[in-house]
Amino acid sequence: MGERHWFIPDGYIPPDSTGDLVSHESVCVLNTSSEDALLSFTVYFEDREPIENVLVVVPGRRSRHIRTSTLAKEGEAIPPGVPYSLAVSSDVPVVVQYSRQDATQAANALLSVMAYPIKPHQNGR
Amino acid sequence: MGERHWFIPDGYIPPDSTGDLVSHESVCVLNTSSEDALLSFTVYFEDREPIENVLVVVPGRRSRHIRTSTLAKEGEAIPPGVPYSLAVSSDVPVVVQYSRQDATQAANALLSVMAYPIKPHQNGR
Amino acid sequence: MGERHWFIPDGYIPPDSTGDLVSHESVCVLNTSSEDALLSFTVYFEDREPIENVLVVVPGRRSRHIRTSTLAKEGEAIPPGVPYSLAVSSDVPVVVQYSRQDATQAANALLSVMAYPIKPHQNGR
Amino acid sequence: MGERHWFIPDGYIPPDSTGDLVSHESVCVLNTSSEDALLSFTVYFEDREPIENVLVVVPGRRSRHIRTSTLAKEGEAIPPGVPYSLAVSSDVPVVVQYSRQDATQAANALLSVMAYPIKPHQNGR
Questions:
Q1: I need a surface site. Which of B77, C73, C124, D31 has the fewest CB within 10 A?
Q2: Which SUPFAM superfamilies does the record cross-reference, listed alphabetically (chains A, B, C, D) (predicted)?
Q3: The complex's ipTM?
């Protein structure tokens, strides 16, 4: 259940951390189907070409919280402190939520959004 | 008014609290109908089989803010400090929002998302 | 532009404040039409009958950020420290976002969600 | 991929900052198409006429995180400390998320929402 295409415009890995918590982002994926979901991430930047086709598997009937710092391809990863966006495609329908924990200052801050889905047969896009 | 199927990919009960506030998550449900809503929760994990069919009632014309730490079946509950996801089904249409209060550090942090709805007759899913 | 029916399941006015900021919630409404929008709020509780038909006007081509503590009818208002939900109806289409500022502890915390819309002609609901 | 019309009811530039972080808001835009997207912003206020047609370009296959403090037209910008709303139109479909970092007090606070999209052919609106 869910959708095959999801978008997250506000990506940002906070470069600093304070205290015991580590600043990070997670792309949280729920795959309620009985099959593995093969996810393909595209990372869009402000000033250079995208990193395309970063692959991640989410097993059937499982949750997976993917740290964006682990998304890498041929040694190229998302640098901290840089604004970016993410597109996620999946071969089976899934549900995708994005959360950030920012521990830059002495206190913890959180944000979270459901990613934006594009639905099949929706105006042919 | 609302939907019968809702999904929350980013579930996490913070294991620690500081100060007077207690870290917790709430699944907040609005049932505007005049009938009771019978909700069935499924809890999905990263590395083991889901906990299925945890039942909760939300009376008609009432709000209910359900702490995720109270969702349990046959003595099995959601452990703190573990990434998970939730699926919620209801026999009458409801609206579902998910919020987390994280008081791990000396200051309070909050996140909230509307859960993701799957609508009836939507591509047969 | 927008919708006529919006829902906010997670309502809560934090009873305490620390520092110079005051804990509060806002229902933020954008009316892009040229006519006034007449909004009707229903407040749903966990353990008693709803407060119905609290009226607020948002002028045409204007933004209005409505503090939930100002929603009252016949002397009955939303008490602080109590979980509740909101339904908002408008006679012209509007867009509704809900935000909370929680200054209970020494630091500020924020959450925000777009309210959940029910669209006309959507499965007859 | 995405939509051409997006709405953000809860706009507010926090007037104060504490520590090394600066309070600000960002409208984060993902343009997955190969063409430039020309965005037109309208800023709605509570007590005066909107600022209309503020133009911003987001290149093809790029992310752009736009600080709301940079949105200006004929010397007129969004004042800090004032509640407002935003409407964003684009000539090619994009995805829009809104985030605020509030460093008013000694600790950082974050909120984020996906903007609300109006879809083409949706009830003629």
A1: C124
A2: Hypothetical protein TM1070
A3: 0.90
